[in-house]
Amino acid sequence: MFEYSSLLTFIALTAILAFSFYAVLIAGQLSLAQVGLASLAAFTAALVVPSEPLFGFIPPLMIGVVFGMAVGGIAAFVLGLPVMRLRGVFLAIATLAFGEMVRIFLINQSWTNGAQGLSFPKLVGIETAWIALALVAFWFWRLSGSRMGRAFAAIREDELAATTMGINVPRYRMASFVIAGAVAGLYGVLFVHFTRFADPNRFSFETAVDGLVTAVVGGTTFFVGPVLGSVFLSALPEVQRALGIDASWIRPAISGLLLLVVILFLPGGLAGLIPRRKSSTRLVSDPEALPQLEPLPTRGTEVMALRALGKSYGGVRAVRDVDLTLATGQILGLIGPNGAGKTTLVNMVTGVTAPTSGTGTVLGIDLTAKTRAHRLARAGIARTFQQIKLFNRLSALDNVLVGGYRVSRDTLLRRLVFLPSARRFERQAAAVASAQLIRVGLGDKATIAAGDLSYGDQRRLEIARALASHPTLLVLDEPAAGMNHVEADRLSELIRSLAADGVAVLIIEHNVRMMLALCDRITVLNFGEVIAAGTPDEVARDPKVLEAYLGANDDAAAEAAAEELAEVAAESVKDADGDAAGAEGAR
Amino acid sequence: MQLFVDGIFLGSIYALFAIGFTLVFGILDRLNLAHAAVFSAGALVGIEVVTRFGLSIWVAIPIVFALGALLGVLIERIAFRPLAGRHDAHFAGLISSIALGAIILSVLQALYGADTRRFPAEAFPSTRLEFLGATFSLLQLMILVISVTLMVVLTWVVAKSKLGRGMRTIAENPHAAAVLGLNVGRISSMTFAISSALGAVAGVLFTLNVNAANLGIGHAVELKALAVIILGGLGSLPGALIGGLILGLAEVYAVNTVGSSWRDMVAFGLLFLVLIIRPQGIFGARKVREV
Amino acid sequence: MSAKHLSAVAGGSLLLLALAACSTTAPAPSGEAEAGGLVGSGSGAECSIESEIPIGAAFSLTGAAAQYGSSQKNALEMAVDDLNEVGGVTYSLTVEDDATDPQQAIQVFDGFISDGASIIVGPTLSNTAKQTNPVAQEASVPVLGVSNTAAGITEIGDYIFRDSLTEDAVIPQTVAAAVEKFDLEKVVVMYSNDDAFTESGYQAFAAALEEEGVEVTETLTFSKTDTDFRALLDKAKQSSPDALVVSALVEAAVPLVTQAREIGIDAPIIGGNGFNSPALIKGAGEAAEGVIVGAAWNSASENEQNVAFIEAYTERFDVAPDQFAAQAYAGMQIIDEAVRANCSGEREDIKAGLGEITDVPTVLGEVSINENRDAEHEALVQVVEGDKFAILD
Fold first, then answer.
1. Cβ(C55)–Cβ(C83) below 8 Å
2. What's the pLDDT tens digit per position in A40-50?
3. For chain C, how long is the longest CA-to-CA vector?
4. Does the distance separating the beta carbons of A101 and B269 come in below 8 Å?
5. Region of poorest pLDDT, from A334-348, C33-47, C133-147
6. How close C26 gets to chain A, by Cα (Å)?
7. Following CA atoms A130, A134, A140, A143 in sequence, which dihedral angle do they give, to the nearest 10 degrees?
8. Which among C147, C137, C163 is positioned nearest to C100, based on CA atoms?
9. Neighbouring C-alpha atoms within 13 Å toward the C-beta of B134
10. Residue ranges for chain B with pLDDT beneath 70
11. Percent of chain A with pLDDT over 90
């Protein structure tokens, strides 16, 4: 025992508590249930921790820890079942309510001795606490570069985009919840076996807020954050004592001030002070590293068939009775004025919104209310969004790596024991991602955060991310928006080469000239209905199409499209007349 | 009947705290955890003004209102505005407001010590009223009336006034609000000022009602107020009032049925259930997510 | 290994190194080093010790229990000043804040232990004491609790003493006196069930009421942070009890008493130790009239020391002392007695001295410490009469 041994032990224990918050924060969730879970774990552990080693060699603390983590994890799972569908502040408050319910429950139980509290044997010292912290930190360190870690980051940045990459968002959110619960259970058991006494009030709302503050002050983008946060916050009172600052109101005032300074001036938390590279992964341009990907279905295989598909919101029918088919190797264009229902249709095809009428099959999966976007993504559909939905704080390459979720393997367990195959799989995933990034011309911007890229680059990055999943059906929602015509031409070329590889492409675009040149077939929507369909020529000549665009009021894009449409139609009529004239002349 | 009346009055206290709380939370989407400290500050400064300077409670309340407004502006300027545009503004605001709340509380301790204080007994007439066999104090009735009035006035302000339109635009889209030429900073400041001024006055009324104030009273009510604004629906002012009344009634009836040990279990269980069944709260509107 | 991993590992190991460095450079316990100077010559009033005797006190000066901690600090400082004036033995007092957080209290204890404190006074709250006192017990440093009333404190070990009477020592007497005076037959009991102090008070009340054969028609609980008790009181009122028996801290006691009178409960109110504070009278005013309080200390006691103490305290701090202050002051008197008994400020000698405390005159009256290391002295039953605590007769 030396002067600072308790302080150092508390630093380790508080860091473990902060890690239980970190576990959910990295997946973009705010849960305050951890303290309640820790309490449950600690008090139930008191019922099972034996006074003598089990079988003569399993130390009692080990039993307590395993039991406590199990209790924490299982309780988190049970709690997660109903609350997992909540988001943001609703989740925070539901979990806070749970924590309070646990506290009140335990206060009213005789086996916890209520507010009188319970004594525990002292089984934890400074070494045990730091070993436990090292193990927890190690887990989160290995997690951060694994596929699971990337999936958490993707969910944090944009849940919807993550789903359309094939990530089973509810399952991952639950996983982060259960991990947090197990870590919280560990904290609870260690804490009470260090302090030797606890009553249920020890695990209160204030404790939860402390844990959250520690995690956020430390930083949630780097695994050492919770440790730094804990060192900072636990040492503050001790430092003030050592400096001889008067033991009075002045101390909380100073602590509050420092906390304020840290939070206002260090956006990434204390961990942001540690210099490190923005991207955890490097571009792998070695073609040798590319894994063998499953071949696409043979050209002409039907991948999408919609029959009278419709969607209404309340009484408004956004899309009605749409029939549409698409086969591999084909490029199908979807045009129409704003509000015609194009994006709604695409959302139904990608499983983002459920249809309310009609039937549809995409890649062998029926579109119903129960169809989940990640399942369609798993089956081989990839998409981009009209409103760009990138993972803004991740690097360009990491974005594409998340896109490769479907064709990569989870490496967390392998990483934990440093299996060589973990590195091999990661290199393969990086190679796939790098190849797509280079393909769209962003090879030199791999390490830049997606949010910092220019608009056009962001569009291209979204396409690279979609391509990284090696899709059978690629859905592009206004991919050329904001591009100049040189860039748009290059994009058209890319799309053509994809179709040539056998990818089925469904594309929405306002650039009518580009669409007419690019697509094999075009379907025109207006007010949710198909008003024309056929080859680009047929569509361009259809007067209803021009009318639809002209009828759209106050819509600059539609006006431009109408103009282009009129020009193209005129050109093609002239061509046709010319042909006819030539034919006549030849006769 | 007495139970019902007790519940309503207990609930109106929760509502009083919650109305200011929900204004910032629901409209600016910021959880201001310094609100509890403002509540305590209102109570303690109010007591000081009445006892030290011998002023009437009717003079003290406007002073406390002004103090609350000032604190609100400070909170917005110090704890929230510097975070604008940061991706972690949500968490960071939570924590900067906790930090600022701690500072406010420590200053209060420096000024007034940690003892439980109260208004002099003669500060407010202790008239008792009777209605359908239930008794209550004039003060309780006044708090209920104030809560309802505040709810109505604020609802009107948010729905109809220029300031309210500004608030709503900012809530929808701060960037658009700036583009439209709204002074986002000023409107945020105003919202915080109103919210905190209400919080501070709520502290005074609360203290008059229960006859005790100390540094911790804000925190004791804060948790319940969180429950109230969720019950009623985030950002809905009528919701905050109704939510408060529901919680008050639930607590009172819980005491009489399942016993007082389990009272808070009922309160938080109710909150938990509402969140699971109807997350948008009783009066909240469901937000449709756009892709 | 990528650069990120390298830097992470480097950062982590640096941190660990820094911590390890901290731990190896931390000063060794210095208690033994100063040993020589702490033993004096003579005994009792003639005892003279050369070195100052270091005393550590851990109180809650900020946080939820701040209002108790600050009066303890005041009284202890005053006691040390008074005793240092007597001469022969001088004390150097360090008061630290545990911020009402057991975690901090443990660290404060650690600091006192390694800085060589001869005895530690405190901490303020019983549940904190259950976490801090084992640390002192392991390090063989005596602890004198001056406000811990919960069961199981002195059982922690033979270095743990207290001068605060447990609720068991006060409450039966209070109940007996009240039953006799008011002829109680049925009562309603109210207590906050999320606080160790008030809950143990409740247990003592329940046992005492059963002993006296009083029927408890209703037991109502609340939370220590509650301030609105009208719903509970309305429920209590329904069974028209002969008295309300309340175990609560003074923060809750003030609103509870005033609201009880407000809604028209006229039955006498009987409170535990938590009620024994001038804050009750100041806060509840007229409503406090007639409240019966069992207490370890009575401000109206004629005890000469007590009268002087109240006068000096009120003059110095501009506020009347409460029971917490009196017990802290008495604690220092008891420590002085224990030091002078063996004329030594050594930890072991103080411990031995505390075990021998018998009928020491203090502001609490004559205090003895029994074989369980708990204090024994006369408890009093008081009633609030005309803005003052008076002895119930």
1. no
2. 999 999 999 88
3. 83
4. yes
5. C33-47
6. 6
7. -160
8. C147
9. 18
10. 282-291
11. 53
Chain A partners (3+ C-beta pairs within 8 A): B, C
Identify the closest residue of chain C to A120 by CA–CA distance. C131
A85 interfacial to chain C (CB closer than 8 Å): no
Instruction: Answer yes or no: are the C-beta atoms of A509 and A515 closer than 8 Å.
Output: yes
Of the candidate ranges A133-137, A230-234, C141-145, the one whose mean pLDDT is the lowest: A230-234
What DSSP character marks residue C124? S
Q: What is the pLDDT of residue B291?
A: 34
pLDDT at C374: 93
pLDDT at A2 over 90: no
Q: A238 CB near a chain C CB, below 8 Å?
A: yes
Q: What is the pLDDT of residues B48-82, one digit of tens each?
A: 999 888 888 889 999 999 999 999 999 999 999 89
Verify whether the Cβ–Cβ distance A2 to C106 is below 8 Å: no
Residue A228 has pLDDT above 90, yes or no: yes
Alpha-helix residue ranges (DSSP H) falling in chain C: 3-25, 66-86, 102-114, 126-138, 167-182, 196-211, 230-238, 250-262, 278-284, 304-317, 323-342, 347-355
pTM, two decimal places: 0.90
- Window 125-184 of B, Cβ < 8 Å to A: none
- How far, in Å, CA of A449 to CA of A279, rounded? 8
- CB < 8 Å to B95, chain A: 212-213, 216-217, 259, 263
CB contact under 8 A, B226 and A352: no
φ/ψ (deg, to 5) at A508? -105, 135
* pLDDT of res. A176: 95
User: Burial, C240: exposed, middle or buried (Cβ in 10 Å; 0-12, 13-18, 19+)?
Assistant: exposed
Q: Where are the alpha helices (DSSP H) in A84-219?
A: 88-107, 126-144, 147-157, 159-163, 169-195, 205-218
How far is residue C122's CA from residue C133's CA, in Å, rounded to a whole number?
A: 9
Query: What mean pLDDT do residues C346-373 have?
Result: 93
Average pLDDT of the residues in A41-60: 88
Q: Rounded CA gap, C167 and C164, in Å?
A: 9
- Provide the 10 A C-beta neighbour count for residue A313: 11
- Nearest 10 degrees: Cα torsion A350, A353, A356, A361: 10
What residues of B are in contact with residue A352 (Cβ under 8 Å)?
A: 291
How many residues are present in chain C?
393
Q: What whole-number distance in Å separates Cα of residue A254 and Cα of residue B54?
A: 33
Query: Measured between CA atoms, how close is C319 to chain A, in angstroms?
Result: 18
CB C54 within 8 A of CB C115: yes
Query: A390 near A450, Cβ under 8 Å?
Result: yes
> Nearest by CB to B265, which of A88, A101, A160?
A101
CB distance from A217 to chain B under 8 Å? yes
Q: What are the two backbone dihedrals, phi and then psi, of residue A534, each rounded to the nearest 5 degrees?
A: 150, -160
Distance from CA of B212 to the nearest CA of C (A): 6
Beta-strand pair A365-366/A316-327: unpaired
CB–CB contact C139 A1 (8 Å): yes
- Please name the residue of chain C whose CA is at the shortest distance from the CA of residue A113: C196
Question: What is the token pair recorded at B20?
Answer: 């200011």
Contact between A198 and A144 under an 8 Å Cβ cutoff? The reply is no
Beta carbons of A335 and A515 less than 8 angstroms apart: yes
Per residue in A186-206, pLDDT (tens digit) is 999 999 999 999 999 899 888
C-beta atoms of A259 and B99 within 8 A: yes
Decide if A385 and B100 are in contact by the 8 Å CB cutoff.
Answer: no
Give the range among A343-347, B110-114, C35-39, C136-140 with minimum mean pLDDT.
C35-39
Rg (Cα) of chain C, in Å, rounded? 23
Band of pLDDT at residue A555, cut at 50, 70 and 90: low
Could you tell me which of A473, A482, A253 has the C-alpha nearest to residue A388? A482
